[in-house]
Amino acid sequence: MASATGVAVGLQRWSSAQSAHNVHRLGRFVVAEQQRLAARVQKEQRLEPLSLRDGSLWQVRRRPTLLKAQVEEEESAVAPENGVATRVDNGGFVEAVSAPIESESSWLPALPHVLTAAMANFMFGYHIGVMNGPLESIARELKFEGDTIMEGFVVSIFIVGAFLGSVGGGVFADKLGRRRTFQLDAIPLVLGAALSATAQSANVMILGRFLVGIGIGVNTGLVPMYISEVAPTKFRGALGSMCQIGTCVGIISALLIGLPAETDPHWWRTMLWLATIPGVALIVGMQFTAESPRWLGKMGRWDEAQNIIEKLWGKGEVDVAMEELRAANSSEGEDEDIAWSELIQAPYFKVAAIGSALFALQQFAGINGVLYFSSLTFKDAGITNGVAASAAVGVANLVGAVVALSLMDNQGRRKLLMGSYGGMAISMALLVAALGMPDNPDVAHLLSVGGTLLYVFTFALGAGPVTALIIPELCTTRLRSKTMAVSLCTHWVCNFGIGLFFLELVQRIGLQAVYTTFGVVSLLAIAFANSYIIETKGRSLEEIEMLMNGESSK
Asked: In what residue span(s) does the Major facilitator superfamily (MFS) profile domain sit (predicted)?
């Protein structure tokens, strides 16, 4: 990592960096002499944002109370310690030539809190998978077999509930805190699953699915937001990948638990009863997890925020993290929320637009269409066992998510996102090629199965996890929950629209043309990420906020 060459004195516009590595997190630099002088300055003095000449960001305290001997000379150099040198000029500023040191932070203290939150994503995946296999048995027992409209409504009402939940979840998260919102949100998840399990009519089943949808809608925004706020900066990407992994494990669990449904027509009730267990576990588990230090700081509960930072991130992170939080809150205002209408105004509109665009591109790149036709693709290739086909897709999804976990804090979000969409575009090319080979079925089947698995793998590598993680990273604390709400509303609307019109498009223009469109959207997503997404790897949320408010390279 390149070291900074100095600190320009005074307020300046943030300069453009030439490399992602040129932007250092404030907490990675220690200036030995600056620490000694810090005891002599007034604690209430404000932080002033400065920019390094090479584009890195730094915040230092103005020090007008320095000893006379320390400012007599125009510029007195202090010997470097641990690769860090400081100079004090006669304006009362400390200038630093800095180098990184090792951080004390570890991922282990935050892991139990992250895993508890990820249970909500497990429920998301489980409820996606739980209706796939036994839907015919449910329709037969509840007496709407053959009614395709009712069958579609039982499935789609879930999305309607999720849309409403994504809107309301942000309000509760801001007012009650992240932990209490998790606990409150688990109530419709448990109640909805119980109603569905005991349903004796289609109407009760619809009500249960609607309640589950509300809970899922809240969680899809709350989980990545919470994880991004409690995870140490160094490991935020890897821990944030637990969202996607939780969803994958939930889908596979529903598939495995649903195996007896092939011989037992009433097994679906057991499957839905089992869905109440992680909901109850979430309520209990959140009683012992940490509240978001960002939310606590926003509410002015600084002592609690400091204790949690020390517990989850390590003592070495406390001072700098608290300075960052206080600086961010002093500019935003403690306990002050922006109105919904402000999301369409500068500077908030930019982040809201990026979030909505990312989710729209994710959906229009065709993930639901590929999954919809995956069973038919495998069947045409001679794999008639639906469970085997679903298992293959589920494993590809899970493997991609695990690989993303290992790469997220290494390669960075932006590279993973662009590489993911690149792989999805290649996958679509394989599927289009397979559809154009009616006279060569063996090659066509190989390309179609390979293209499907490659698509699911590359989606799980970036387009899935990065989209959910990077949006809360780009937002300020005041803006985060509302931006996630708007972005997820876009997600659910696009999801519903594709589910509604996908088959109609296939009938009108053909599957080959639809897949070609999905490939083009994937290429557009690469261009969008290249133009509008900054790299968030290794940067605190407060530093990312500074970058979004200024001029910065990727």
From this structure: 113-537
